[in-house]
Known about the structure:
The protein is an alpha/beta fold and 253 residues long. It has helices at 3-16, 22-28, 33-45, 68-73, 76-87, 102-109, 124-130, 154-160, 186-197, 236-242, and strands at 20-21, 49-52, 55-58, 95-98, 118-121, 136-139, 144-145, 150-151, 165-170, 174-175, 180-183, 199-205, 217-221, 227-230, 249-252. The chain folds into two domains: 3-60, Winged helix-like DNA-binding domain superfamily/Winged helix DNA-binding domain (Arc Repressor Mutant, subunit A), CATH 1.10.10.10; 70-252, Rossmann fold (3-Layer(aba) Sandwich). Strands 6-5-4-9-12-14-15 form a seven-stranded parallel beta sheet, sandwiched between helices. It is globular. Keywords: DNA-binding, Transcription, Transcription regulation. This is DeoR/GlpR transcriptional regulator. GO terms for molecular function: DNA binding; DNA-binding transcription factor activity.
Amino acid sequence: MESFERERTILEYLKTNNSESIENLAKICNSSSMTIRRDIKRLIELKTIEQRHGFVSLNRDISLLVPYAYRETLNKEVKKIMALKAIQLIEDGDVIILDAGTSCIEIAYILNSKKNLTVITNDLNIANIVSNYDIEVYIAGGKIENKNYCSSSIDTIKYIKKFRVSKAFIGTSGITSNFYFCANSCDKSEIKKTMINISNKCILMADDSKFNSPSIIKVKSLQDFDYIITNKIFSNDEINHIQKNNGGKILNV
């Protein structure tokens, strides 16, 4: 079992159990206590879990996953404008990957303006929309995440690794105050990392509601993106921080 799979197992277990000892978590993950202690240390550093008196539990200060139906309406008009900015980065003949989520779905709605596109996605709604156009579509399979209409598992990651894409458009469940974007599960974190790794250019789609609203797992710094499409207004210091070492170019809408 790889580290992110163990972390996922630990988090899923703690969602339904108030707390557990490291020894029992080691048995659940079929790993040594030393290995689990390393995983626990990382999850504590990410402020995902807490450890007290030899037992670990979820950090209850972390917000619960926001329902899809609510996210779909949140800042919808802003997301449409962000999608118009994103479409300007897509060229005829591109191979692109669209991350699951309500920001990228707005891109899907207007992809019919491009020719000879290939789209890879793990979002069932995006695949359904794009399949109505003259576009070659690949859906990354695996376990379907209930009520979120996307695949999210080790099989999803393995499938995505088969591709090399021109551009990856990535969503986020939150961004920390020091500009790390987040995911709300270990699987989603690894999926986003994989999408970024297989792309020539990666673009973050993040409306202003996502900033200073961290989720469970930190994924990467905003400096790792080529472009950041957002309606957030940054200070000069924030821009300098994000664009340090040729970091992400901010495309405001």
